[in-house]
Specification:
This protein has 194 residues and is of the alpha/beta class. It has 7 helices and 5 strands, in the order E-H-E-H-E-H-E-H-E-H-H-H. The protein has a 5-stranded parallel sheet with strand order 2-1-3-4-5, with helices on both faces. Strand 3, helix 3 and strand 4 form a beta-alpha-beta unit. The chain is elongated.
Length: 194
Amino acid sequence: MTSQISIVVVEQDADRAYEIVAALKSIGMVTINVVSERSGLAAKIKDFNPDVVLIDVSDPSRDMLEELTIASDPMSRPVAMFVDNDSRGLAKAAIEAGVSAYVVDGLSPKRLQPVLDAAIARFNMFGRLRKELEQSKRALEERKVIDRAKGLLMKARSIDEEAAYGLLRRKAMDEGRKVAEVAQALVTAADLLS
């Protein structure tokens, strides 16, 4: 784990918060902020802008779990949640809400670093997957637009698909644009004219 990491610890019990901070300091964490009040949690976390949020809750309800998860913004940073007791289905709900690590049986100082490492690794992995999914969706949309533009050219000029793509590609090269951009312009113009 990097030594230049900032963590917000969400813990209501002052003694427990002290133990967590001591454990974090012992594994080389530099910036640790403790938030003991849940009211305004999202704003506090946003103000600190931590790399990781660590939440320690003894017995969460589904509503509390949802509130804590939303406030910690799990799509922007890894969130590790430690609970003493787990009600049926809470782990699944936490993971579906974006929590990177959900650990039952409380927070143990000796387990802290491996859990944080796993939460960070899982968050990064899902971030890469989200990015790849977005790129795939964008590529599919571009492909659809190019296919539609090719169809328009094939119909208007009585040419085959290869020739239509060649026209799009040449136009894109001449204008220093992407084929998808030229195709989108053609589709937009055709929509305006129809």
